[in-house]
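Worked problem 6 (solution included).
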Amino acid sequence: MKYINKLDGDRIFLSLSQKEDLRLYNGWLNDAEINLTYGRSHIVFNEQQQAKYIEDYDNNDDKFFFVIVCKGENPENEQAIGIGLLYDIDYVHGKATLGLLLDKSFQSQGYGKESTNLLLEFAFNILNLNNVMLYAIEFNEKALSVYKSFGFKIIGRRREAYPINNKVYDEVYMDILKKEFNNRNDSGL
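Solution. The predicted structure is:
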């Protein structure tokens, strides 16, 4: 399948979504293990709902749905490995929210960092936003660690926002500013 390279990285690029990948996206979004880390294991998507969800992103200027594609030696070897989102974009105030989902087999290999870098590059230096926020559930220590190492700062918590498996967890809010991101990239981090 031929993906459309919207923003190029070292090992991956951001692409527009492909209808042929609906089954793949649906598999990720219905995977209980992946969705537990987002507090969304109770949601069930079918392909029609997923298609409508992507279409909503494609038809709005205040959100972007990107496929994270692992590069291959040729276009036939390219592989979708995740989804990157920018949503709640406010162009007047220069802010947005970031979301990231990676296939389990591509986690803990640096793809999350590279994906985050490309999404922030798009947000800050293409859309010219100033502040990007995200949130994670406090037990998702791997994600929180990646975002902190990237320069995201904790800006607050929603206490006991996720009751999961007879335990309650806080929702942790983090953000990064354009100048922090660009300074980080200028210093080679």
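Discussion: Helices lie at 22-29, 32-36, 47-58, 111-126, 141-150, 178-186.
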